[in-house]
């Protein structure tokens, strides 16, 4: 079954035990949507409720959906009279949408091997390392994550990290139809909490790390942890020899014990400090790359790659563990890692022939920023000049923490705008600066991000490192209701090309 063509509404309704039906279910459904603007004739419109201020209640758009051709709706409450439109009343529209979308597209995750990666930091880099190794083993690859979607090397932009079920399942079906062997998916905490990946069969779940992030959504660290844990609690209960599932956990992160006790899948660990099934020894970190001795349950080998930073040792270990599960030989893993280039927006080198380093990185949490700066201090010969800001309408409690970290680990800090969204940019940079020790004088506030990048590069001299943090791969900036084009790399190149 290819899925995604036309299905009877009765077939979808029968997926739910508890429901109330008003109208005819012996009708054809041509698609599933939760956005009334995308409705086409014959679609099923799902009225998901509002979610922590991130989404508007879709019940209020039912008239628009019906006018565009929706012939059936999933609702959680009464929405008035709509003749000739079937209403299926459910307890959770999100759950209904997820399992109906998976069924509508023929359960595509059962037809490929799906690797899910969750954690605060490292998801994108880990996914790209896995893609590099798997592709070198002649596997056809798909990627879904923060940088967009890739199928067989073709890139498709996406609007959010973990897609909503109708889009996610449609994309997985597209991969299956193009004979993709494995898909590597970044799985966000919001995506897990919103049931976006319900209906996905993961072969492997991978945990990178857990530090403070998204508390504007989850409110507490425990809730954030528990949302991440949903990926692992759903693994392994129905695992047969043919359909084994695995949990790959970071042995050096204490949260891994929490996940280990909540999964029925076989647990395979990786790490540096604690005893692990896959570990790195004799680690060397430099300005041009990292190397280490890999010790694993499949043997030992020396690894070299161009990525920078101790955190990328962890990302590489996670990817290597996934590769060993896939059955890829150590020699193939070694050779593919040696040829891998930097990941876009992740410790990405911006080079115009200058005699100092300029790096663009997505580090937008306290832990990520601390990891990056600690790594830079390990090999820096000159000053570290850091440019960063914090996004608006997001967890404000991390702002002073990041200011304190940047000041402590940098020689000079320029605090600037990130994506202010609806907040006052001046207020955000002031809150960041509030975390810096009163006696410190190694920072300045430059609200305009382009001007801040210019100032940092122009003050740099031989052997210095300029870190432009926070936005990474993003090529936009959100200012109130306006989204403008803005790319840290482009801005850096502009300035570098003006230098003597």
From TrEMBL:
<dbReference type="InterPro" id="IPR005761">
    <property type="entry name" value="UDP-N-AcMur-Glu-dNH2Pim_ligase"/>
</dbReference>
<comment type="similarity">
    <text>Belongs to the MurCDEF family. MurE subfamily.</text>
</comment>
<dbReference type="InterPro" id="IPR036615">
    <property type="entry name" value="Mur_ligase_C_dom_sf"/>
</dbReference>
<dbReference type="GO" id="GO:0071555">
    <property type="term" value="P:cell wall organization"/>
</dbReference>
<keyword id="KW-0573">Peptidoglycan synthesis</keyword>
<dbReference type="GO" id="GO:0005737">
    <property type="term" value="C:cytoplasm"/>
</dbReference>
<dbReference type="InterPro" id="IPR004101">
    <property type="entry name" value="Mur_ligase_C"/>
</dbReference>
<dbReference type="InterPro" id="IPR036565">
    <property type="entry name" value="Mur-like_cat_sf"/>
</dbReference>
<keyword id="KW-0963">Cytoplasm</keyword>
<comment type="pathway">
    <text>Cell wall biogenesis; peptidoglycan biosynthesis.</text>
</comment>
<dbReference type="Pfam" id="PF02875">
    <property type="entry name" value="Mur_ligase_C"/>
</dbReference>
<feature type="binding site">
    <location>
        <position position="474"/>
    </location>
    <ligand>
        <name>meso-2,6-diaminopimelate</name>
    </ligand>
</feature>
<dbReference type="InterPro" id="IPR035911">
    <property type="entry name" value="MurE/MurF_N"/>
</dbReference>
<keyword id="KW-0067">ATP-binding</keyword>
<feature type="binding site">
    <location>
        <begin position="119"/>
        <end position="125"/>
    </location>
    <ligand>
        <name>ATP</name>
    </ligand>
</feature>
<comment type="function">
    <text>Catalyzes the addition of meso-diaminopimelic acid to the nucleotide precursor UDP-N-acetylmuramoyl-L-alanyl-D-glutamate (UMAG) in the biosynthesis of bacterial cell-wall peptidoglycan.</text>
</comment>
<dbReference type="GO" id="GO:0008360">
    <property type="term" value="P:regulation of cell shape"/>
</dbReference>
<feature type="modified residue" description="N6-carboxylysine">
    <location>
        <position position="228"/>
    </location>
</feature>
<feature type="binding site">
    <location>
        <position position="36"/>
    </location>
    <ligand>
        <name>UDP-N-acetyl-alpha-D-muramoyl-L-alanyl-D-glutamate</name>
    </ligand>
</feature>
<dbReference type="GO" id="GO:0005524">
    <property type="term" value="F:ATP binding"/>
</dbReference>
<dbReference type="GO" id="GO:0009252">
    <property type="term" value="P:peptidoglycan biosynthetic process"/>
</dbReference>
<protein>
    <recommendedName>
        <fullName>UDP-N-acetylmuramoyl-L-alanyl-D-glutamate--2,6-diaminopimelate ligase</fullName>
        <ecNumber>6.3.2.13</ecNumber>
    </recommendedName>
</protein>
<feature type="domain" description="Mur ligase C-terminal">
    <location>
        <begin position="345"/>
        <end position="472"/>
    </location>
</feature>
<keyword id="KW-0133">Cell shape</keyword>
<keyword id="KW-0131">Cell cycle</keyword>
<dbReference type="Pfam" id="PF08245">
    <property type="entry name" value="Mur_ligase_M"/>
</dbReference>
<keyword id="KW-0961">Cell wall biogenesis/degradation</keyword>
<feature type="binding site">
    <location>
        <position position="470"/>
    </location>
    <ligand>
        <name>meso-2,6-diaminopimelate</name>
    </ligand>
</feature>
<keyword id="KW-0460">Magnesium</keyword>
<dbReference type="GO" id="GO:0051301">
    <property type="term" value="P:cell division"/>
</dbReference>
<feature type="binding site">
    <location>
        <position position="196"/>
    </location>
    <ligand>
        <name>UDP-N-acetyl-alpha-D-muramoyl-L-alanyl-D-glutamate</name>
    </ligand>
</feature>
<feature type="binding site">
    <location>
        <position position="188"/>
    </location>
    <ligand>
        <name>UDP-N-acetyl-alpha-D-muramoyl-L-alanyl-D-glutamate</name>
    </ligand>
</feature>
<dbReference type="GO" id="GO:0000287">
    <property type="term" value="F:magnesium ion binding"/>
</dbReference>
<feature type="short sequence motif" description="Meso-diaminopimelate recognition motif">
    <location>
        <begin position="418"/>
        <end position="421"/>
    </location>
</feature>
<feature type="domain" description="Mur ligase central">
    <location>
        <begin position="117"/>
        <end position="322"/>
    </location>
</feature>
<feature type="binding site">
    <location>
        <position position="394"/>
    </location>
    <ligand>
        <name>meso-2,6-diaminopimelate</name>
    </ligand>
</feature>
<keyword id="KW-0547">Nucleotide-binding</keyword>
<dbReference type="GO" id="GO:0008765">
    <property type="term" value="F:UDP-N-acetylmuramoylalanyl-D-glutamate-2,6-diaminopimelate ligase activity"/>
</dbReference>
<keyword id="KW-0132">Cell division</keyword>
<feature type="binding site">
    <location>
        <begin position="418"/>
        <end position="421"/>
    </location>
    <ligand>
        <name>meso-2,6-diaminopimelate</name>
    </ligand>
</feature>
<keyword id="KW-0436">Ligase</keyword>
<dbReference type="InterPro" id="IPR013221">
    <property type="entry name" value="Mur_ligase_cen"/>
</dbReference>
């Amino acid at each position: 079954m290819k899925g995604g063509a036309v299905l009877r509404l009765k077939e979808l309704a029968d997926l739910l035990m508890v429901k109330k039906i008003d109208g005819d279910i012996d009708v054809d459904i041509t698609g599933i949507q939760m956005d009334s603007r995308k409705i086409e004739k014959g679609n099923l419109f799902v009225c998901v409720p509002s979610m922590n201020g991130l989404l508007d209640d879709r019940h209020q758009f039912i008239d628009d959906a019906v006018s565009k051709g929706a012939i059936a709706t999933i609702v959680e409450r009464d929405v008035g009279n709509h003749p000739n439109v079937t209403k299926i009343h459910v307890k959770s529209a999100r759950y209904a949408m997820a399992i109906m979308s998976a069924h509508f597209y023929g359960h595509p995750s059962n037809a490929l091997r799906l690797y899910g990666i969750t954690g605060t930091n490292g998801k994108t880099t880990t996914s790209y390392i896995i893609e590099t190794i798997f592709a070198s083993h002649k596997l056809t690859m798909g990627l879904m994550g923060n940088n967009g979607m890739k199928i067989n090397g073709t890139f498709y932009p996406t609007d959010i990290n973990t897609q909503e079920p109708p889009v996610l399942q449609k994309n997985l079906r597209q991969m299956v139809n193009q004979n993709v062997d494995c898909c590597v998916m970044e799985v966000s905490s919001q995506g897990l909490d919103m049931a976006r990946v319900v209906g996905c069969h993961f072969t492997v779940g991978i945990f990178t790390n857990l530090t403070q992030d998204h508390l504007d959504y989850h409110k507490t660290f425990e809730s954030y942890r528990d949302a991440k844990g949903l990926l692992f609690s759903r693994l392994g209960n129905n695992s047969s020899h043919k359909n084994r599932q695995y949990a790959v956990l970071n042995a050096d992160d204490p949260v891994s014990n929490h996940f280990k006790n909540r999964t029925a899948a076989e647990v395979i660990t990786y790490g540096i400090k604690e005893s692990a099934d896959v570990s790195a020894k004799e680690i060397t970190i430099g300005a041009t790359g990292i190397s280490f001795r890999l010790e694993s349950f499949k043997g030992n080998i020396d690894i070299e790659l161009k990525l920078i930073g101790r955190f990328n040792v962890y990302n590489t270990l996670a990817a290597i563990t996934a590769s060993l599960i896939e059955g890829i030989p150590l020699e193939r893993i070694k050779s593919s890692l040696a040829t891998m280039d930097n990941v876009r927006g992740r410790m990405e080198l911006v080079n115009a022939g200058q005699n100092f380093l300029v790096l663009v990185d997505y580090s937008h949490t306290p832990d990520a920023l601390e990891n990056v700066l600690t790594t830079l201090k390990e090999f820096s010969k000159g000053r570290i000049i850091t440019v960063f800001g914090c996004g608006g309408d997001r967890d404000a409690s991390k702002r002073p923490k990041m200011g304190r970290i940047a000041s402590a680990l940098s020689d000079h800090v320029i605090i600037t705008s990130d994506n202010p969204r609806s907040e006052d940019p001046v207020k955000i940079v002031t809150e960041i600066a509030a975390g810096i020790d009163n006696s410190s004088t190694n920072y300045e506030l430059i609200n305009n991000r382009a001007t801040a990048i210019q100032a940092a590069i122009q003050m740099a001299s031989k052997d210095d490192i300029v870190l432009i943090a926070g936005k990474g791969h993003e090529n936009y900036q959100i200012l109130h209701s306006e989204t403008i084009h803005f790319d840290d790399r482009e801005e850096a190149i502009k300035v570098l090309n003006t230098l003597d």
